Amino acid sequence: MVEMKSSVHTKFDDKMPENGGVPIVLTASMIEMSDFNLNPFIAFSGGFPKFLVQKKLYPPVPFNQDGTAKFAPYGLRKVESILIEEFGDENVVTVCPTNLHRFIGPKTKIIGISTMDPLGIGFVSRTYTSIFGINGKPATLVEFEDLLSNPALKKYRAKIIVGGSGAWQISSANMQDKLGIDTILIGQAENSLLQIVRKALNGEKLDKVITMQIPVDKEIPIIKKPSIYGTVEITRGCGRGCAFCSPTLRQRYSFPLEHILREVELNAKSGTRAILLQTDDVFLYKSKPNFIPNREAIVKLIRDIDKIGGVDYIQIAHASLAPVVYDRKIVEEIAPILVEKSLWRCNDKRCASIEVGIETGSAQLMGKYMRGKMLPYKPEQWQDIVVQSIGVLNDNDIHPLATLILGLPGEQEEDILATIHLLDKLKGAKILYVPLLFTSEEESTLKRQKHKDLKNLDELHWDIIARCGRYDIDTWKPEINKIVMAGSLLLYPYYRWKHGKKIFKVIMKFSGLDEMFLNRKVGIECQPQYCVCGSNKEVEENY
Ligand code: SF4
Predict the structure, then answer these.
(1) Taking every annotated instance into account, which residue ranges of this chain make up the domain Radical SAM core (predicted)?
(2) Is the CB of 80 under 6 A from ligand 1?
């Protein structure tokens, strides 16, 4: 249930803005209006329970002198660009929630809110909120409710319109009326937005939920003001066809180099220092038929961005793994720039990172749901592709963040064991694992399938969660091992109560206590009666 707490807005200023307000005011929740101290990967934590995500983790973006936001989410900047082009700079502003009262007045007709995960039911939010289990309310939901309960929003009866990649969550959870939202926009803005906004400005009634038309690439404008993380879109859509994924259903575009460089320059001049290249797969950039990567185009893109003054950091958002094996030279040619301009350090050495999807070790599931992901290779080759590509990335000092999906529809024990087998093959690789519960997203092919919940996870799934946690700590923060052990022992009674007795093995493996007690201390091989289900031995027997 949503609680509207007006008391949180203690700084709300009841005075009307001197100019009567701005007709179109754009905003997003405090957590989406932050660059997490220039750390796009920490932004993942927005899906964690609020008590774990303190406000200082996500400071708001700075303001310009007039109170508008200096940086804003990229999608909001695209919307702003379309609206400024049509209605003029003076009629459109983008602001942080804390400054809404300075711009909303009797002249305000539309308050546009952009959101990626308003209710905290995306892959990351659902998974980590249910694992940590306390209170259950993700930070992203708390902040979205907080924004919607801001008294400035309701004061002059402007239309509240919500869009963005997470807008579907509100309509599918029937939360629209409860949150006081007039209209929800589903899909990409560029084609239909102006028509909708004109209607709203004329006082015409809007449908409660509007699905927007797919834009053609020429309709997608260049942003006019800087984006958070210096985000610049290089491709949109994917088309590899993974059944759980929404970008795959979007029309695929590679933006012209000149368009990209203009956005990079705009961001660099504004002092963002970082450029985040937004793409669902960098290897799709100007790719050839059958998803064959275009080495010349990708290398030129990265080199040209590198030459732009003021760009201290370059981060690519996502990559798929098969093209790394298909043409490892692409990685070898761009890695030196990515490492030199990386935000990250691994064991005191600069290293780059990129998000990749391993998802499963099962060739059967790859063939069923992700056949396009490993093109031009075959599903049976998936484990080899993963191992080889991670090797190439690591050899070039790129240490990826890798997602795994637990509970894909129809997943059987042999599929889960295949994933465990793959994790064993990857032992020693520099990877940050992020296991996720299968979530059926509204815009995906599997939208009618049920979400996978923690309560019906298999013991082997729990084993994967524990392994990933253990590998991540061993690889990235071995110095916190003792704290993790002590914390695990302290929290064991709570998690035993929350998740049942199966949690014992999970806590033992995650904390490293199983190795300590069963192997090292006793000095013997793991005994079958104590071995955590799905250990190497068991896996080997299945192969
Ligand atoms: S490769 Fe990635 S972005 Fe493309 S369809 Fe698959 S999961 Fe989606």
Answers:
(1) 224-467
(2) no
6-216 and 226-476, same CATH topology: no
Cβ of residue 320 lying under 6 Å from some atom of ligand 1: yes
Retrieve residue 342's tokens.
């990386």
pLDDT for position 2: 34
- ipTM of the complex in this document: 0.98
Residue 441 CB less than 6 A away from ligand 1: no
Atom of ligand 1 nearest to the CA of 284: 4
How far is Cα 279 from Cα 254, in angstroms, rounded to an integer? 9
Architecture of the domain whose range is 6-216: 3-Layer(aba) Sandwich (3.40)
Contact in structure between 250 and 189 (CB atoms under 8 Å)? no
Q: Of 194-198, 208-212, 492-496, which gets the smallest average pLDDT?
A: 492-496
321 lines ligand 1 (CB under 6 A): no
Among 284, 236, 230, smallest CA distance to 40 is for: 230
pLDDT in tens, 373-393: 988 899 999 999 999 999 999
CA of 522 to the centre of ligand 1 (A): 46
Phi, psi of 505 (to 5 degrees): -65, -35
